[in-house]
Design brief:
The complex is a heterodimer of chains A (321) and B (355).
Chain A lengths: L1 H13 L7 E5 L5 E5 L5 E3 L2 H10 L4 E4 L14 H6 L17 H6 L4 E5 L6 H5 L4 E4 L10 H9 L3 H21 L8 E7 L3 E4 L4 H8 L3 E2 L3 H6 L7 E5 L1 H6 L4 E6 L8 H11 L3 H4 L1 H4 L3 E4 L1 H4 L4 H18 L1
Parallel strand pairs in A: 3-4, 3-5, 5-6, 7-9, 7-11, 11-12
Antiparallel strand pairs in A: 1-2, 7-8, 8-10
Helix pairs in contact in A: 2-6, 6-7, 7-15, 8-15
Chain B lengths: L1 E5 L5 E5 L4 E3 H22 L8 H8 L6 H36 L11 H15 L5 H23 L6 H25 L2 H11 L8 H29 L2 H6 L4 H23 L5 H12 L4 H26 L7 H27 L1
Antiparallel strand pairs in B: 1-2, 2-3
Helix pairs in contact in B: 1-12, 3-8, 3-10, 3-11, 3-12, 4-5, 4-6, 4-10, 5-6, 5-10, 6-7, 8-10, 8-12, 11-12, 11-13, 12-13
The chains are: A alpha/beta (321), B mainly alpha (355).
Chain lengths: 321, 355
């Protein structure tokens, strides 16, 4: 018995950090980082890809790179409002894009900075303020809502994530049962319209929802060649000529964030300017196989975006019947 | 020990016993620029979110206790930015001044010859393949890129005996090709990678810290010897290659060495803060307006001017343009170009009045 007590005390001493507020984790680039067990002042270096997944899990983000001092966002769309709903407190900024302000960052008193693997060049400077965790966001490395899964594990909210994902998957199953035809194996292609056509990357709630519904991404030659180094949000530009030849079972069109009308009318008008006459010859249009979705709702790698995508898909199928 | 005399152009000159001589006007210009650099650094030290400045900085040396926020702002953020900015500006300006003498062309700078682009593209390719590449590897890539362009240039124009004009013209051609390739990379890379590279291409002193200064210092030490050697050679090159050869200058050997000196300077600057276009032209011209000089004096005055311009540009970015996305390259243009225009205009007026 005495031996057991000594063993227990020795184990407690050896595993001392278990009692501490910090733990050692390996980030996606293989660095070992000492992070708080339950961080409560998190700063993110990319709001849509890193901030939204955390906020969707219930964590309030303290700071976000690209936000202004007053909390306004750098682009026309505020993803917190569009994905999670309005009225939430906004994180504060610490300098405009290209010029992170270390003094402002330090003043936010973060206990964890979450950055993308592409922020590796800023690592030394950011680490002078707080521990930095580098998370993969490129299409070749993460898929669907894996970013949110990874970040949930980082902040100790895996159970919350799993429970919400289970609810989401139940919804997917019930939606699949209501579909008139089996969607398994059908192809989809998401295209984002700026002043050109862009194939959307793999890391988004939209992609997660479509693939959970059974769709598979259309293998466009050009996309498969470039996908290895592809971005998370936009995989690659697509020429108008190549686009006109494509015939996915489901074409998903997303209008630019800068457009006020991101619905069907605005998206059709935008595509008319890029590929004149597409409505007359593209099969997905002639056969009513186009889904128009608002990228501001579905493009983040979150369960919330995946649910928005299910909403959009459900209302489209109802309308199509 | 020191004798005061008159140069051939009638200006006062100080002659030292060891043969070293300096025009009094250049000495005063140098002292004035050094003073301006110190004043600018003092002003720059107090720009930022944390309310602190030179008095707190001096207090550190007498053992005063400062808050962590003040120490961080002064020692970890502001002072490294000032030092790196000055060193980088000095290096680019020096590189421009050397290249202008080599090419006998007042428009020559590392950007015009494609050295900056060579370094830039090599760094971009490295960061695409190895996003977590260590700083030393990035520096090596920058030097390798610049050296490849210099080697290519020398080969294309037919070796070290080629004329300055041929180097400039071929440099423009190489620079155009490399810039197009750089644009292509930015356009067709995934947006997140493009954005990360664009931030660096726009120029920023965000990376300035003590380890970067430690990496830069040995190079800066070599600059002193570089100035002593290059400064002695450049007056001969200012007269043209043939005249330099006639004066006994081994052009075939020294021209590649001078090019190498310019490339290393430019590559070091590109590694630290990204490409600073136009600075290599701006600084030597503004320095020449303040006090016309040749040789070592010209290099020192150009270097001081370059350093001041970069620190001033960073101060503008941090102080005046708070919250605005103003990259270092842009603020450098905002400060440097009006000064450049005024200097050229006054120079033209001066010449007009003297005729």
């Amino acid at each position: 018995m005495r031996h057991l007590v000594f063993s227990f005390i020795a184990a407690m001493l050896v595993t001392g950090p278990v009692w501490a507020d910090e733990r050692l984790v390996s980030d996606d680039t293989g660095r070992e980082v000492l992070v708080p067990r339950q961080p409560d002042r998190v700063v993110v270096m990319h709001e849509p890809l890193l901030g939204l997944p955390l906020m969707d899990l219930g964590i309030e983000i303290t700071g976000s790179y690209g936000r202004a001092d007053d909390g306004s966002f750098v682009i026309a769309v505020d993803f917190i409002d569009t994905v999670l709903g309005e009225g939430r407190p906004k994180p504060r900024g610490f300098g405009p894009f290209g010029q992170p302000d270390l003094e402002k960052l330090r003043a936010l008193e973060p206990d964890l900075i979450v950055a993308t693997e592409l922020d590796a060049g800023k690592l030394d400077q950011l680490a002078s303020v707080a521990p930095v965790y580098l998370q993969n966001v490129s299409s070749a490395k993460v898929h669907g809502i894996e970013i949110q899964d990874d970040l949930a594990a980082l902040v100790g909210l895996t159970e919350v994530f799993n429970s919400r994902k289970a609810t989401y998957l139940e919804r997917v199953s019930s939606l699949r049962e209501t579909l008139p035809a089996n969607s398994a194996g059908l192809t989809y292609l998401p295209v984002f319209l700026t002043d050109q056509l862009n194939v959307v990357g793999n890391a988004s709630g939209m992609v997660q929802a479509l693939e959970d519904l059974g769709f598979i991404r259309l293998n466009v030659d050009e996309t498969s060649k470039l996908a290895a180094g592809g971005g998370s949000m936009m995989l690659m530009p697509l020429s108008a000529e190549a686009f006109g030849r494509l015939n996915p079972d489901l074409l998903v069109l997303l209008n630019s964030y800068t457009e006020d009308d991101r619905g069907e009318t605005g998206t059709r008008a935008k595509l008319d300017r890029i590929v004149p006459g597409w409505q007359q010859f593209m099969k997905p249009n002639l056969e009513n196989r186009i889904l128009f979705v608002d990228p501001a709702k579905v493009i983040t790698p979150t369960l919330a975006s995946a649910n928005h995508m299910l909403d959009a898909f459900e209302s489209w199928t109802l309308k199509s019947r | 020990m020191i004798r005061r005399g008159t140069a051939t152009d009638g200006l006062g000159i100080l002659r030292f016993k060891n043969g070293f001589q300096i025009k009094i006007s250049n000495l005063f210009a140098g002292l004035g620029l050094a003073m301006a650099a110190v004043l600018l650094a003092v002003y720059s030290l107090q720009i930022g979110l944390t309310k602190t400045g030179i008095s707190d900085f001096l207090a550190i040396f007498v053992g005063a206790e400062l808050s962590d926020a003040k120490v961080y702002a002064l020692i970890d953020v502001r002072l490294p930015r000032i030092l790196v900015g000055f060193m980088v500006g000095w290096a680019v300006a020096l590189s421009g001044a050397v290249l202008q003498s080599l090419a006998r062309n007042p428009l020559a700078d590392p950007g015009l010859f494609g050295f900056s682009q060579g370094s830039m593209i090599m760094i971009m390719l490295l960061l695409i393949v190895v996003p977590l590449a260590p700083k030393s590897l990035v520096a090596l890539a920058a030097v390798a890129g610049g050296l490849c362009v210099a080697g290519l240039l020398l080969w294309l124009v037919g070796g070290g005996r080629s004329s300055g004009l041929a180097i400039v013209l071929m440099g423009i051609a190489v620079e155009t090709v490399l810039s197009s390739f750089g644009t292509l990379l930015i356009l067709y890379l995934p947006p997140e990678t493009s954005l990360a590279l664009s931030e660096w291409l726009a120029g920023s002193l965000f990376q300035a810290n003590w380890s970067l200064i430690a990496a830069f210092l040995p190079l800066h030490g070599h600059l002193v010897s570089g100035i002593l050697i290059a400064g002695r050679l450049l007056p001969a090159y200012d007269l043209g290659n043939e005249m330099a050869m006639a004066l006994g200058e081994p052009v075939a050997r020294s021209q590649p060495l001078l090019l190498l000196f310019a490339v290393v300077l430019s590559a070091a600057a590109v590694t630290a803060v990204g490409p600073l276009m136009f600075l290599g032209i701006l600084a030597p011209h503004i320095a020449a307006f303040l006090s016309p000089a040749t040789g070592r004096a010209r290099l020192v005055l150009s270097g001081l001017t370059g350093g001041i311009l970069v620190v001033a540009a960073d101060t503008l970015t941090r102080g005046v343009a708070v919250g605005l996305p103003m990259p270092l390259g842009l603020s450098l243009t905002i400060i440097g170009v009006p000064l450049f225009i005024i200097a050229l205009r006054l120079q033209a007026l001066r010449k007009f009045q003297s005729h």
